[in-house]
Amino acid sequence: MARQLRLAPPLVDCERRGDGSIVLRSPQALGDHPRAVGERLAHWARAAPARTFLAERSAGGWREIGYGEALEAVRALAEVLLGLGLDGTRPLALLSGNGIDHALLALAAMEVGIPVASVSVAYSLASQDLGKLRAVVRQLAPGALYVAARAPFARALAACPPGLPVLTSEPDDPMSVARLRAAVPSERASRAAAAVGPDTIAKVLFTSGSTGQPKGVVNTQRMLCSNQQAIAQLWPFLLERPPVVLDWLPWSHTFGANHNFNMILWHGGTLYIDAGKPLPGAFDTSVANLREVSPTLYFNVPRGFEMLAAALERDAALSRRFFSGLDLLFYAAAALPPPVWRRLEALSLAATGERVPMVSAWGSTETSPLATQVHFPIASAGVIGLPAPGVAIKLAPAGDRLELCVKGPNVSPGMWRPGGQIAPLALDDEGYLPMGDAGLLVDASDPARGLAFDGRLAENFKLGSGTWVIVGALRVACVGACDPLILDAVVTGHDRAHAGLLLFPNLATCRAAVGAPADAADAEVLADLGLRRRIAEALASVGRAGGSSGRVARAILLSEPPSLDGSEITDKGYINQRAVLDRRADRVELLYRDPPADEVILIDIDGE
Fold first, then answer.
1. I need a surface site. Which of 169, 305, 376, 448 has the fewest CB within 10 A?
2. How far apart are CA 165 and CA 227, in angstroms?
3. pLDDT per residue as tens digits for the range 4-49
């Protein structure tokens, strides 16, 4: 039995054109919405001033701030930012991760028309050369910076232009947010707030730099507000009770910032800021938080859901608590591997007697982020839903595939340039933004069944036989088959006879699988014949009914984790296929060498 939620009906207008393209639109018109996100904060400050808006861990438990207090803080901090000389051409750059002070400053800047740029924390703390941070600051030309504490960010601050004001959360710092909240809003701030409109730049969100240095995508107030209005129309159940969310997803990315944070604000919900991450050791923090917080919505990336499933399988009481008030699970970006989907379904059934719906959406930083949304039951991952109200999706022929193109109020006007200039995006002759993603109708005879993601066009390649390999689907199938030994994989094989894999192992799980002593070297663990045989057998099971494009013949285990400075991974854990192939070209050559090198795992693609 599946849990029932009030959702918009799955309806779509479908136009099939003579050139082979298909245009899909929601028959539901986009409703009226505020001119700016800040109007929702003001609404909830009036309607429910004492309700908790944000909560974060502190020494004494959870530090909380209600909607009324948050609005007062935002207006005071807006006055401070204007006094520092920030305006529509001199943004605020926030280098620290998610936190209450971070949120208050971001809302304060947007309140008076100052663009906000939440910068990936990894650029400051995980990078060795700080190259991406320097590139971001150079493009942004900010008027001020924020770090929660100066000491951890000392290297990062030294890499920024001297003389910039630095705001902090350190109590004794004269520029601490706590002290600055005592400022008294002036008429100047009121005028600046009144001047904010739908076309005002709200944010500059930087892409992960998968094809070079990060690029700043302009997000306007219209983009953010139209997106949340569309979500509210597709998921009307959000109006029935304020959502409660525990979320780690970084505000430097559109998923955590625009989709999740703004959804909480739009509906007067409560956001518990999770300091955990889906990484070994760090996920323990998320589990500890889930023992205290029962969310109504839960968002994560596939790796996070895999770790969550393992934690819930170990603790039935935690599983019952987690699913007790949950309306749905939302996964984003990559498709959820089928084994993880089945485990979560089994867990929800065992805990509540119902299947908690699992849904997704599709979009990008340039679409703020949602362009399509799942608002109907789906049986497996890969379905990305139907166009949101106000959005048109064109499936345009691109070779033997169909490229997803987007037009609507959610689409960015362009890329940020220093001084507030905007470099327009490259639209097609009808004003659609080509996304570089392929899509297809789940059922060509019934468009209302939704769209399915069909991979990144730039990632896919042809084998030597001329057969296309759909990288996204093959990667998900292989990682799922090797669960839990493999964290991720990169597909190889351009102009080769067969596809292959570069595998990023889950070293902790691999060690346990081979019974390795604590002092065993990683290379020794990965060379274990039993481990290699298990991986080979798992990969041999992938795509047996299909041809060469759905099979892998060889694989190699990588002992070095993906590199942030090498653009191989984002701080959300997404692997950049192209960057890994370029950076590890020697491993690719080794993979295809004949006779095979000892490190290569050979997969029987002919046997049954």
1. 448
2. 33
3. 899 999 999 999 999 999 999 999 999 999 999 999 999 999 999 9
Same domain, residue pair 393 and 523: no
Judged by phi (left if over 0) then psi (alpha if -120 to 50, else beta), residue 399 lies in left
**Residue 136 token pair:** 């971001």
Q: Which of 508, 417, 568, 37 is nearest to 257 (CA)?
A: 37
Q: Are residues 74 and 157 in the same domain?
A: yes
Whether 601 and 532 have beta carbons less than 8 Å apart is answered as: yes
Structural domain boundaries enclosing 191: 65-196
At 598, which CATH number? 3.30.300
How sure is the predictor about 414, in pLDDT bands with cuts at 50, 70 and 90? very high
Q: Which phi and psi angles does 465 have, rounded to 5°?
A: -75, -10
Closest to 143 measured CA to CA, from 107, 121, 117, 173: 117
Angle between helices 302-314 and 338-352 in degrees, nearest 10? 40
Closest CA to 405 of 430, 432, 386: 432
Q: Give the burial string for 472-510 (b: 16+ CB within 10 Å, else e).
A: bbbbbbbbbbbbbbbbbbbbbbeebebbbbbbbbbbebb
**Domain check: are 502 and 416 in the same one?**
no
What residue type is 314 in one-letter code?
A: R
Strand ranges (E), 280-432: 297-300, 328-331, 358-359, 361-363, 370-373, 383-387, 392-398, 401-407, 414-417, 421-424
Asked which of 456, 485, 507 is the last residue of a domain, the reply is: 456
- pTM listed for this prediction: 0.87
- 505: which strand partners? 486
Q: Which residues neighbour 161 within 8 Å (Cβ) at sequence distance 6 or greater?
A: 137
Q: Do 466 and 402 sit in the same domain of this protein?
A: no
Q: How far apart are the C-alpha atoms of 250 and 115, rounded to whole Å?
A: 18
Per-residue pLDDT of 461-493, as tens digits, reads 888 887 888 888 888 889 889 988 998 899 999
Is residue 366, in this structure, part of any structural domain at all? yes
- Regarding whether 152 and 93 lie in a shared domain, the answer is yes
Final residue of a domain: which of 456, 486, 502? 456
Indicate the number of domains in the chain: 3
Beta bridge partners of 58: 61
Q: How far is CA 400 from CA 466, 470, 513, in A?
A: 12, 12, 42
Domain assignment of residue 238, yes or no: no
